[in-house]
Amino acid sequence: MSFEELLKKRYSCRNYSDKKVSLDDLKKIVNAGRISPTARNSQPVSYYVVTSVDNVLEMRKDVQALGGNAFCEEVSSFIVLTIDKESYDNKLAGNRDYTGMNTGIIAHAMCLEATDLGLATCMLGRFDRKAVAKMVGIDEEESERVMLVLAVGYSDDEVIQDKDERRKKMEEVTKYL
Ligand SMILES: Cc1cc2nc3c(=O)[nH]c(=O)nc-3n(C[C@H](O)[C@H](O)[C@H](O)COP(=O)(O)O)c2cc1C
User: Fold this and answer.
1) 11, 5, 7: which is closest to 161 by C-alpha?
2) Domain limits, the chain
């Protein structure tokens, strides 16, 4: 698959089969995050791979707690991305807040890796943060902050809408100076 094909193939899947993702594949997905660029190579993100039955049940509840994400009832593995408190508080050089940028760059790389492995993903920004922090065992006041949850599984979609149809046109978003 060419890189362009991979970019087009990745989409937010909201319909999963019950096939489980192997630990090997989940490690590859985390590795794609680990080697991603971050501001000043600060590498502030930690990864919590959630696959055990009890924890998956808890995660399903937590990501639906604010409404939506009902499709997560079918998801059997999640990866929680947290960011170091130090990075969050200091905001690095020039007092700029790079937390969202760092997390987003990492999350997209992870989704592309998963897609390349034949898996499907959905980035989840809507969840009960306190409950997720408790589930992964971190104290947000002391150590890390939960940034994003990645749902990972096998797609059960037969037809996937062309992404281009759901995007603004090139002319709308680009200026050549
Ligand atoms: C930071 C972020 C948070 C998101 N949170 C959710 C979410 O909580 N639930 C959901 O179903 N999709 C969520 N999405 C997926 C977006 O809705 C999706 O990426 C967008 O509609 C574009 O569709 P595509 O990913 O299929 O290309 C999130 C995406 C991003 C980047």
Assistant:
1) 11
2) 3-173
Pocket of ligand 1 (CB under 6 A): 11-12, 14, 68-69, 122-126, 163
pLDDT for res 93:
57
CA of 128 to the centre of ligand 1 (A): 16
The structure's pTM equals 0.96
| Cβ–Cβ under 8 Å, residues 154 and 15 | no
Q: From ligand 1's centre to the CA of 139, what distance in Å?
A: 26
Note the pLDDT of residue 40: 87
For atom 21 of ligand 1, which residue has the closest CA? 12
**For the domain with range 3-173, which CATH number is right: 3.40.109.10, 1.10.10.10, 3.10.450.590, 3.20.20.30?**
3.40.109.10
